[in-house]
């Protein structure tokens, strides 16, 4: 829906109103901890050598946010903004992708700063803030969706007949999803398709699946995943997601089957519990899931 892009745009447009802006990845505790360690180092509260305890780093950062004195940190040397004329720094803390907002309990700051949260959970609007001022992002309406498509495909001044009407039709077909519109705009530009040509291709089921998997950037800041990738991860079972998280901690070139074999047996009770020659562990897992 473009939550992250909107948060980044807000920070960019309002950067002169703050002395410090902190971007925190909030989808899991490990990322929250690492971001607070990084903030502690950036603020000069600790050196990289001293920042060995995540709990201490978090406490130091929360302490600074509660009493953000410019002169007490090295950040004072780098502040060029005129956001605050006194010695108190004005700050903005952005928790990105806080899909489990309850995780923010230990990281929620005190003080007079500003906090922004992006999340899929409506609870994030009222769990910690004293006043609920959240915005629910909806799909783009046909007019706005077509305007975005025309801009990304540089078809604003197109001589194509009924370009506006065709753009609205495409936007409606894509359910007004900004990610989908952005991805398809990249395909249209890269393949040098007219809007009508793209719509004809998209209407065929066999081509539509391929389009979902194709990714061409429309800008240097474009979303890194394709629609197929996003939907694919969302459809994974809890067990499959857990297995992927385990694998993310391992060297991708030398993951040993023995490390994952017992875990797979626990996740899938009917999974073979002995090693055997033949397909690899991952292939057996996939084959098992495909047949069950």
List keywords for this structure.
3 domains; 3-stranded parallel β-sheet; 292 residues; mainly alpha; single chain; globular
Please explain how this structure is put together:
- There is one protein chain.
- The chain folds into three domains: 3-125, no CATH class; 143-233, no CATH class; 237-291, no CATH class.
- 22% of the residues are buried.
- α5 crosses α6 (163-173).
- By secondary structure, it is mostly helical.
- The protein has helices at residues 3-13, 29-42, 54-66, 75-78, 142-152, 163-173, 178-190, 195-202, 205-213, 227-235, 238-248, 257-267, 281-291; strands spanning 20-25, 91-96, 114-117.
- Strands 1-2-3 form a three-stranded parallel β-sheet.
Number of helices: 13
Query: In total, how many beta strands?
Result: 3
The biggest sheet amounts to:
3 strands, parallel
Give the N-to-C terminal Cα separation. Answer: 33 Å
Arithmetic mean of pLDDT: 75
Order of helices and strands: HEHHHEEHHHHHHHHH
| Contiguous runs where pLDDT drops below 50 for at least 5 residues | 72-83
Total count of domains:
3
Spatial strand order of the main sheet: 1-2-3
